[in-house]
Amino acid sequence: MNGASNGKSRKGLRKPGGDPIRTGRNLPLAIGSGIALGALVLLSIYPLAAAFVLITSAAVLIGLRELKRALAEKGVSLAVAPLLVGGIAMQPAAYFGGPGWLAGTTAVTTIAALSWRLRGGAEGYVRDAAGSLFVLLYLPFLLATWQLLISTPGDGPERLIAFIIVTISSDIGGYFAGITTGRHKMAPNISPNKTWEGFAGSVLACMLAGALTVSLMLDGPVWAGVVLGIAVVFAATVGDLIESLIKRDLGIKDMGRFMPGHGGLMDRLDSLLLGGAVSWVVLSLLV
Questions:
Q1: Residue 113 pLDDT greater than 60, yes or no
Q2: Max CA pair span of the chain
Q3: What are φ and ψ of residue 84, in 5° steps?
Q4: What is the mean pLDDT of residues 34-42?
Q5: Cβ contact 205:174 at 8 Å
Q6: Which residues contact 171 (CB under 8 A, 6 or more apart)?
Q7: What span, in angstroms and rounded, lies between the C-alpha atoms of 85 and 284?
Q8: Cα–Cα–Cα angle for 15, 19, 22, nearest 5°?
Q9: Nearest 10 degrees: CA dihedral of 240, 241, 242, 244?
Q10: pLDDT tens for residues 232-276?
Q11: pTM of the predicted model as reported, rounded to 2 decimal places
Q12: Which of 38, 154, 214, 270 is deepest in the core (most CB within 10 A)?
């Protein structure tokens, strides 16, 4: 209205009250990441679901590389060889052997990682051992729960797709609710842009997505889908906060450069890692 002098103030989206919209998550990127993952899932599981093992194995390789570099900023030296070999082995172990084989492979990898560090002496042993065990559980173990989902007899691929759809819905619902109504900060010291209003939008979107996917894709009860949505939204939100806190502690902005200009693979997997494990538990018990 006031010409060029106000041109700068008009740039960008604004809330109804006039405040500029700021969000921590890039919606097009979040959606694009989910679509890309969904495309990889579809291409790898139809007609051979076992091919998805290659996808999570590649994610272990890329994610381990990112975590190794990031943790090195704090002087943490990972047991890379045992984590790489064991982490990749955990993927087919979960798919072909189920929870029992996954637990066994995880235990063997734990012993190998702790033993590997012995040659470095006592100085920093607890620090390095703790770092290795954190990476083991945070990356390959949680990724392997995706294999537990997809290997479920009868409707495994549909369970994996349902989990991805519900998790993406958390991003979309939270984004739109946050940018339009977000006022009350959820965790300003960890993720300043997260709001309780955005969280409420995520809850509603996940409940709706869960109800639809479970009833239409898995022939399960609607109430089980609602439970799935609630469980996933909490897992996705906590996963996002955990990743943010890790980066703040390490003093880095992004975990890597897997996606130029947008960070690493671990930056994109934050909500999906915990969401997969929670989805497997909920669907195993209720559907």
A1: yes
A2: 71
A3: -70, -50
A4: 69
A5: yes
A6: 25, 27, 30, 31, 34, 202, 236, 271
A7: 28
A8: 80
A9: 90
A10: 999 998 998 898 889 888 888 878 776 655 578 888 888 899 999
A11: 0.84
A12: 214
